[in-house]
């Protein structure tokens, strides 16, 4: 059954003028990065308002750093075959843009270049007090030792990764480019996201309203199944290489 759908997806992608991809935590699940919702989701263990809200962080950064330990530091995460297949489809000139909610930088590490990070990136950090910039890799040893990073310029403990916290605006330029890509796209492939968080969750409707088609790739059903022309149940790391094989 899924074999037939994989063939259908490959045909839709080949036919499309401007296919774009929208990804969420599910595409990184097979790299060992925990997702947010679902039975073992991070929001079962942490209250997002306390752990990843800007008001909470300004009050006390500690809950965030506990959360960050779980999110990315538990293991040395690597791009998986799903990320790699998408990078290959970009190299073949097929996929035009990846719009992602993920902050793990795995699309770029797999070789994708046209990536719009709508929820920011853990790859960089900024001191909220004096605006000094940091690279994530410089902070990892301190966090792995279970400490809170301290700014070496102003000694504050408010070094915050460049990710969008609850209560913060999304990066406006990236959001504008994502909206334009969704409007221009005649096919959006939505991978590994529950579509629970707006405004990103509005993007599939933007493509649909402009006459585009939609493919949903997920291990589960989602909140907007009615919108989709094709729904493939399966793991991104397994299905995407199959689709690539049919195209390449
Ligand atoms: N392959 C495909 N889909 C998968 C896989 C997999 N291997 N594993 C899990 N999924 C699906 C789940 O079924 C779920 O629908 O990935 C989705 C993950 O959903 P969420 O955990 O809600 O993550 P996401 O949609 O990215 O969350 C959006 O919410 O908390 C905020 O800022 C956070 O960017 C995040 C946003
Ligand atoms: Zn500082």
The CATH topology of the largest domain is: Rossmann fold
Helix content: 25-40%
Specify the CATH class of the largest domain.
Alpha Beta
**Overall number of structural domains:** 2
Shape: elongated
Strand order of the largest sheet: 3-2-1-7-8-9
- Please provide the count of β strands: 9
Largest sheet, if any? 6 strands, parallel
Radius of gyration: 18 Å
Distance between the termini: 22 Å
Q: Which CATH architecture of the largest domain is right?
A: 3-Layer(aba) Sandwich
Structural description of this entry:
The protein has 248 residues and is an alpha/beta fold. It folds into two domains: 1-33 and 79-119 and 170-248, TPP-binding domain (Rossmann fold), CATH 3.40.50.1220; 34-74 and 120-163, SIR2/SIRT2 'Small Domain'. Helix content is 39%, strand content 17%. The protein is built from eleven helices and nine strands. It has a six-stranded parallel sheet with strand order 3-2-1-7-8-9, with helices on both faces. Helix 1 packs across helix 11, helix 6 packs parallel to helix 11 and helix 9 (172-184) runs parallel beside helix 10. The longest helix is centred in the N-terminal third of the chain and has 14 residues, at 2-15. The site of zinc ion has 8 residues, from loops.
């Amino acid at each position: 059954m899924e074999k037939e759908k994989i063939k259908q997806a490959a045909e839709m992608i080949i036919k499309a003028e401007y296919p774009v991809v929208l990804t969420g935590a599910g595409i990184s699940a097979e790299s060992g990065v925990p997702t947010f919702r679902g039975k073992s989701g991070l929001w079962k263990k942490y209250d997002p308002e306390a752990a990843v809200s800007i008001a909470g962080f300004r009050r006390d950064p500690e809950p965030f750093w506990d959360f960050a330990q779980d999110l990315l530091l538990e293991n040395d995460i690597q791009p998986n075959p799903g990320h790699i297949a998408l990078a290959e489809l970009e190299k073949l000139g097929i996929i035009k843009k990846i719009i992602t909610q993920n902050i793990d930088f795995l699309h770029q590490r797999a070789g994708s270049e046209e990536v719009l990070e709508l929820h920011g990136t853990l790859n960089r950090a900024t001191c909220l007090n004096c605006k000094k910039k940091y690279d994530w890799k410089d902070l990892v040893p301190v966090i792995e030792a279970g400490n809170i990073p301290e700014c070496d310029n102003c000694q504050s403990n408010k070094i915050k990764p460049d990710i969008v916290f609850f209560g913060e605006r999304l990066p406006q330029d990236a959001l504008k480019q994502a909206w334009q890509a969704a409007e221009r796209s005649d096919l959006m492939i939505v991978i590994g996201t529950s579509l629970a968080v707006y405004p990103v969750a509005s993007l599939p409707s933007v493509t649909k309203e402009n006459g585009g088609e939609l493919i949903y790739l997920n291990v589960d059903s989602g909140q907007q199944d009615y919108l989709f022309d094709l729904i493939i149940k399966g793991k991104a790391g397994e299905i995407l290489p199959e689709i690539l094989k049919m195209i390449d």
